[in-house]
Amino acid sequence: MIRFENVSVRYEEDTEPTLRNLDLTVPEGELVLLVGPSGVGKSTLLNAVSGLVPHFTGGTLTGRVTVDGRDTRTHPPRELADVVGTVGQDPSAHFVTDTVEDELAYGMESLGLAPGVMRRRVEETLDLLGLAELRDRPIATLSGGQRQRVAIGSVLTPHPKVLVLDEPTSALDPSAAEDVLAVLQRLVHDLGTTVLLAEHRLERVVQYADQVLLLPDAVMGPPSAVMSVSPIH
Ligand code: ADP
Ligand code: ADP
Fold it and tell me: Where does the record place the ABC transporter domain (predicted)?
């Protein structure tokens, strides 16, 4: 579903690349956890999946990244909205409308869907994320965990096959974090969504993962090795 072939990312010339000759395959319908110390390149890897690297962040990418067969170099992020949904650490950065319901609808606006289809997807997503009772609430009045679920919902309504999340629970208390992770696990199991999640707090997330990828510090030696570990449940 997600494939990296000999991928290197370098932000500045004459410096060490952040990712070096990386090969990686993330299979469909798994929740894959990407761990590694701060600064090792986790966000860079996620941004390469969503196409932000190389289209928006600066940096040069060599090699090939494909998501559901689409090469991210020739498909900028706006052409990947129905394939990859991206959620960052700070959900507030995502929000463009006032209420929960409007926010869930917004992500579909550029897809040219019929109004009835859009309404149905909003309803499904409200139910799936346990947000139905909050539908008319201004997002500004929600808790951190509720906001993070809205951010996830807003990228789910286009029905992406892949969801990429950069430390989505970092601002949350343990119980709100569990709610968000349980939602992600349900997406994987019920809908077959592929979830790639970066986290530096391994202990919080490992029990939800099908696979754990360790990204060691690229400067410790080429190439950027990714070690796969199957968590013991
Ligand atoms: P992590 O998510 O593991 O903390 P990042 O991918 O954010 O790692 O950062 C890896 C390295 O790449 C860091 O040295 C960081 O300074 C550098 N980097 C990340 N994004 C950019 C950017 N847009 N421009 C320049 N350097 C960047
Ligand atoms: P429609 O376009 O009629 O809404 P799709 O063919 O896009 O339906 O989706 C098929 C089914 O997938 C939907 O009935 C819905 O239950 C389910 N679904 C809901 N949310 C998602 C999602 N985020 N990703 C994939 N499938 C989803």
Answer: 2-233
Residue pLDDT, tens place only, 116-131: 999 999 999 999 899 9
Please give the span between the terminal C-alpha atoms of the chain, in angstroms, as a whole number: 24
Q: How far is CA 96 from CA 26, 64, 108, 151, 177, in A?
A: 31, 32, 13, 10, 23
What b/e readout covers 95-120, taking b as 16+ CB neighbours within 10 angstroms?
beeebbbbbbbebbeeeebeeeebee
* 159 CA → ligand 2 middle, Å: 6
Determine phi and psi for 184, rounding to 5 degrees.
-65, -40
> 212 alpha carbon to ligand 2 midpoint, in Å?
27
pLDDT band, residue 228 (cuts 50/70/90) = low
Ligand nearest to the CA of 217: 1
